[in-house]
Design a protein that fits this description.
This protein has 11 helices and 15 strands. With about 400 residues, the chain is α+β, with helices and mostly antiparallel strands. It has 2 domains: about 170 residues, Aminopeptidase (3-Layer(aba) Sandwich); about 170 residues, 3-Layer(aba) Sandwich (Aminopeptidase), CATH 3.40.630.30. Strands 1, 2, 3, 6, 7, 8, 9, 10, 11, 12, 13, 14 and 15 form a 13-stranded mixed sheet that branches. A two-stranded antiparallel ribbon has the order 4-5. α2 runs antiparallel to α8.
Length: about 400
Amino acid sequence: MTTIHYQNHATNLSDISSPDAIAQPLSIKVYDHSQSEFCLTLWKKLESQFDEIPLMCSHTWTSTWIEHYGDLIPHFFAVASRNNTPCGICLLTEGVDQHDGPLSLNTLHLGTAGEPTAESACVEYNALLIQPADQHAFIAQLLNSLSDNQKWDALLFDGFASQELESWDLPDSELSIKKVESHYFDLKQIREEERKVISGFGYSTRKNLRKNMKSYGNLTTEWAEDIEQADSIFADLVSLHQTRWQKEGLPGSYASKRFTEFHKTLIQKLIPSRQMGLFRVKIEGQVIGCIQVLIDRNRVLCYQGGSAEYKGKLSPGVIADYLCIEECFKRGFDAYDFLAGNSHHKQKMSTHHSYLSWAQIRRPRWKFTALNALRNIKQMMTQIKNTNQNTEA
């Protein structure tokens, strides 16, 4: 879809930014997918500049996503340089099967996004591999570089930490931002206050947890310490997850072979590096719950789970989450994050919340003007209907 003029990879990989170059302005070069090998090699080299690498913009995550989605999602790379010396990089993708209501959209996305809904990896805590002090300038230069490409309707920023995204001062014109609560259990605070994990929950949640634990009786747990064990837990997770959702008439996340194979490959890479955890709970040999978590800068991201059916008022999903939080507490992690969403379950199992944002910059297209007009008419008709009903009452 994009018609940006791409650069040849003349950059020397050994020329990574030095303190002497810091005063120079940033520049952006864009490289197409045919230069992926060069760009991913540069990506890995750039990571040596950072004390911590956000998982969702790491070389491992990005290269694995390209391995499984690159044939479906057109993609390219934006490399930031200072004085011709690389200092940052990000992936840009061209959305496939993207819509707003009835409208088909040509979208560009920052990071591993843009997949059709049924195939999506659902990136959260998305990030840029560039130093925080340079991010504002990087975004400004990137927007300037993309401005000549008239084919995209909307530029999307999917699942970024709200505070980080707000620091970029995106242009207000045609900008929309959706902020979503991300609830988490603060393990670090509980540890520093020398309290037990269960003390972090509200009174009714503590009462229900104790009742559930007593009713279930002899529970056993395991955390995958190697790939073989992780594969076994993942297979149980997929089975539980699919059974639950298919009973509700929905396909389930793992109906997508692409999505499933993506995570199987991540297990091979992230389990050895301790950037993924797989957790299983059993009672008398029967699996009642499994959880897959991702580890991002000592923060546990509760990515996916599967649990057995309720038995009366007993909740295997709540028990699995509670025991996984306990395990993460023992392992020294700082937080257990339930990711975006404001469900009752996430609220009651957490102590705090932060925000994630999905933002988009839209071009002034006639289709958006028409859609907004239709939505305004619908809203007006709803208000008139409600007013008439109140008057009749």
